[in-house]
């Protein structure tokens, strides 16, 4: 029979052996428990995302979770935006495109539903029939200060909503057909001659209020000016004469141009005082030389 001292000694030795167990066994146990918790947490998160967004699927307990190949990723930038190159070079804001002083040499591809284009002070040389063919929503085009020499026939044919068109400060020698709903047309400082303007160019523009043709090479006032015209600038051309039908109607002495507020003809060789019957229908005389 063992003494109490011997029994106590055995208990102490057993406890010491337990405490001296290899540390890697304890660490392995703890690591296994931790990894199990993490894995369960990841599976919970994946299942939650699967139910919330539909972007992931679970193929079994412990299976690797991957995005479905057939499902699009919505957080990537679209590569199908054909307007992106233009809007990197220019500024696109709510239907307006600003391409001023960018040194472009042609009309850039415009975003769909563009209403306003400002491409002033560039190096554009030509306007083709295709440039605006797919943008019928345009209401204003400003191409002031380019190098435009040619405008193809039909370049503005489909722009039924266009109200304001500026081609000032270019090298245009011939006017194309203009949109019927124009309210303002500016072609100041070009190379336009009277023979390059067809007789009916302005006749059907029943909404045209502002017509600017100053500093060109016109030898006469354009024919068939619409009744809607309020402002007409023809200063600094080569106009040498006018007739009784230029602004008025020689066969109708009661005819009055009620909307015409301003006609500028200074800087032309014509002596306006020689044609007193040419202004009887106007509310005020044109500005220019009378002597």
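^ structure tokens above, recovered residues below v
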């Amino acid at each position: 029979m063992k003494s109490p001292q011997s029994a106590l000694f055995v208990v102490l030795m057993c406890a010491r052996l337990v405490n001296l167990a290899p540390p890697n066994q304890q660490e392995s146990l703890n690591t296994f428990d931790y990894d199990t918790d993490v894995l369960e947490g990841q599976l919970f998160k994946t299942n939650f995302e699967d139910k919330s967004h539909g972007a992931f699927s679970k193929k079994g307990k412990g299976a690797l979770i991957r995005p479905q190949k057939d499902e699009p990723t919505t957080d990537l930038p679209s590569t199908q935006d054909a307007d992106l190159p233009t809007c990197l070079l220019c500024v696109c804001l709510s239907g307006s495109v600003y391409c001023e002083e960018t040194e472009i040499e042609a009309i850039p591809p415009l975003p769909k539903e563009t209403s306003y284009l400002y491409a002033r002070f560039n190096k554009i040389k030509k306007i083709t029939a295709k440039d605006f063919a797919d943008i019928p929503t345009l209401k204003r085009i400003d191409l002031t200060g380019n190098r435009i020499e040619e405008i193809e026939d039909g370049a503005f044919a489909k722009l039924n909503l266009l109200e304001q068109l500026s081609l000032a400060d270019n090298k245009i020698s011939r006017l194309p057909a203009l949109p019927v709903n124009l309210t303002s047309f500016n072609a100041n400082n070009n190379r336009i001659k009277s023979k390059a303007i067809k007789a009916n160019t302005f006749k059907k523009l029943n909404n045209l209020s502002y017509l600017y043709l100053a500093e060109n090479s016109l030898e006469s006032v354009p024919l068939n000016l619409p009744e809607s015209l309020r402002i007409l600038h023809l200063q600094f051309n080569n106009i040498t004469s006018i007739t009784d039908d230029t602004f008025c109607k020689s066969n109708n002495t009661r005819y009055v141009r009620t909307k015409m507020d301003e006609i500028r003809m200074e800087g032309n060789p014509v002596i306006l005082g020689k044609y007193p019957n040419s202004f009887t229908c106007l509310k005020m005389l044109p500005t220019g030389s009378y002597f």
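The longest helix spans residues 23-53.
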